[in-house]
Design brief:
The protein is mainly alpha-helical and 200 residues long. It contains eight helices and no strands. It has a domain of 67 residues.
Length: 200
C-alpha cells in the first residue's frame, strides 16, 4: 500500500507542471554607488570631453532632456525608464573608440552591463505583453516587457518613444556624445529606481 501511494504521488506531481522560478529583482546595491565606480565614470567622461573638443564634433541633440524628475514616476516605471536608458548607453559605448578612451571605458562598461542585466531581471520577471508597432530591437525590451498589471504611464511611454526615435535617427557619434555627457543623469535614475519609494 505504501509503495502504491508513493507511486501515485510521483505521477500526480508530474501531471501538474510547475512554473519556472522567476529571476529575483535585486537593485539594492545601486542605492549607493562605490566611489571607485563613480571615479571611473568621471574619468571616462572627462577624457571624452577632451576628445570631443579636439574632434570639433557638433551635436545639437537633446536626447536625455526632459521636464520631469524620475521621482515623479511610479517604482515600476522607474525600472523601465532606466533599463531603456542603459540599453541606449550601452549600445552607444560599444562602438569603437580611440585607444585612450577605449581603455577608460572598460570598467564603466563592465559596471553598466551588470546594471543592465539586473534591470532586465526585474523587467523580465513577468510575462511579455504584445510588442508596440514600430518598436526596434534593443529599446523594444523596455517598451514591450511589462507586467500585465502595470502599463507605463503616458509620461514614460512618450519618453521611451523619444529614445527609440533617437536610436533610429541620430548618428552614432551624437548618440555616443549624449550617452557619455548624460551618464550621471542615468546613474541618478538608477539610484532612484533602487531606492524605490524612498526616492523623492
Amino acid at each position: 500500500m505504501l509503495v502504491l501511494l508513493l507511486l501515485l504521488g510521483t505521477s500526480l506531481v508530474g501531471a501538474f507542471p510547475h512554473e519556472a522560478p522567476r529571476k529575483s529583482c535585486g537593485l539594492s546595491k545601486y542605492r549607493f554607488l562605490l566611489p571607485s565606480e563613480l571615479k571611473a565614470m568621471r574619468e571616462m567622461k572627462e577624457k571624452f570631453e577632451e576628445t570631443m573638443l579636439l574632434s570639433n564634433r557638433k551635436c545639437n541633440t537633446r536626447i536625455f532632456h526632459r521636464k520631469w524628475n524620475t521621482a515623479e514616476l511610479s517604482v515600476p516605471d522607474r525600472v523601465l525608464l532606466v533599463e531603456a536608458e542603459l540599453e541606449l548607453v550601452m549600445e552607444a559605448l560599444e562602438h569603437p573608440a580611440a585607444p585612450g578612451l577605449a581603455e577608460r571605458r572598460r570598467r564603466p562598461l563592465s559596471f553598466l552591463a551588470q546594471a543592465r542585466e539586473d534591470l532586465r531581471g526585474c523587467v523580465n520577471a513577468s510575462p511579455r505583453s504584445p510588442a508596440l508597432p514600430g518598436a526596434t530591437p534593443g529599446l523594444a525590451g523596455a517598451l514591450t516587457t511589462q507586467a500585465p498589471a502595470h502599463q507605463p504611464s503616458g509620461k514614460l511611454r512618450h519618453w521611451l518613444h523619444k529614445l527609440d526615435t533617437a536610436k533610429r535617427r541620430e548618428t552614432d557619434g551624437c548618440l555616443e556624445a549624449s550617452a557619455i555627457l548624460h551618464l550621471f543623469q542615468v546613474l541618478s535614475d538608477l539610484k532612484c529606481a533602487a531606492l524605490r519609494e524612498e526616492c523623492a
